[in-house]
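Operator note (shift B, R.M.): manual run for N-acetyl-D-glucosamine kinase requested after the automated queue skipped it. Running by hand, logging everything below so the morning shift can see what happened. Input copied straight from the record, untouched. If output looks odd, do not overwrite the archive copy; leave it for review.
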Amino acid sequence: MGSESECGKSEVVLGVDGGTTSTVCVCMPLLPFSDHLPDPLPILGRAAAGCSNYNSVGEDAAKDTLEKVMEEALSQSGVKRSAVRAVCLGVSGVNHLKDEERVLNWIRDFFPAHVKIYVHNDAVAALASGTMGKLHGCVLIAGTGSISFGFTEDGREARAAGAGPVLGDWGSGYGIASRGLTAVVRAHDGRGQQTMLTDHILDSLGLSSPDELIGWTYADPSWARIAALVPVVVSCAEAGDQVAIEILNNAVEELGSSVKAVVQRLSLAGEDGKGSFPVVMVGGVLEANRSWDVGREVINAILKTYSGACPIRPKVEPAIGAALVAWNSLMKELPANGHR
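Run finished. Output pasted below as returned.
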């Protein structure tokens, strides 16, 4: 990895994807304005760290994580902060203008005054990873948490879900896994039907009795720790367990309805509901590597209502999407699309 871009410039842009589970920053050279991006995109540096959602880990820890990944990505690239022209931070937990201002205030003093800083929800980075930096269409994220986020070409935006586990992100990894844990407890005390989830979850955690789940859960009820049990629920569904199948079907319904709500509010499918629009699919819950494919089922649910939906599985990671948003936003602000 070097400090010079393909066009001989040392100026760079940064993209940050700040999630509940991990945070990634990439450093890219400041590309010349063009309708066609190079393939593959030149990446000068990449760094990763832990959670940067301040609702989950607190403001100080979130700020430290963001600064750490940006500093490390710049170090790998061999450039200083003064070489940065623009930064886009897509951060989980940024839901309102006051959240954007909070993160902006953390980062403002980290860079020289000339650096353009754009702060969004992490869903924006995910959308841009599928549209290569263009903010148009809808993105569905289903990882530890879940959210649907949409943009129109004239700048309107809308979101559905994404309010965290307490307020019901039931299609998320946390939602699926927590319902799996609940099913085990209900089966154990007689309120629910027996399920394969009991033996499989206990085996995966090294526990001998459902009674031990209470201590395990509340010893560290972090969202990502619970969500890590999703593969157990999926494997039980693949084996025909009806309780696990119902949990996944409910998740599909929740995820599909969140996309439909965004599409309807923004009229992404046009007045007749048949227009085409991208739906970017991101997150471990949606990965197409299992016979019980949540992502495929969600796409089918969306297509039943909006036949013009165009599912996209991104070829680049969300942090690169964020870097492309920084680049696009900067190009729009610069006179005559120049670098100065």
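Quick read of the result: The mean pLDDT is 91. The CA atoms of residues 102 and 196 lie 45 Å apart.
Leaving this for review. - R.M.
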